[in-house]
Amino acid sequence: MALAMQRIKLFQDIFKLKPRKNVSFSPMQEAQKKLMSYRSILNYEIDERFDSAICDSLMDRLLEESLNKSGNRLRDGLGYFYNITQGVNSETFPLTTENIRFVNYVFNKFLESVVLKRAGTAEEVAWPILFLASDYASYMKSTKRFLPFVV
Prior knowledge:
This protein is an all-alpha fold.
């Protein structure tokens, strides 16, 4: 609790900057100095923002939420993800001038990892799924199932 109060005090000090007499620092330099002082007390043991497990699960949840919101369209999902993480409220259009560099960077990194260097079309993705769900693939799965939605 004392650590939290220390963090709050340091953070409040940053916003209460006033020009002081006989000080060689400008307000910006003084703010940077105080911010560095605040950051110096942070570490993974006392601050959950440094815990990889918590951050990973949070990012997974936000990515899933963003992709669901965009109907699993990757570019729009990345736009929503960026907007959520940056506190931008853009419910109508996920892609903005603020997030397009991030979206393009991540999307291009994704395409670099794909063999065809492009996202698959709906047909390219659907046919293998239909085949694996059908009885024709039972030799691969060693099972037979009745799936009424598969022709």
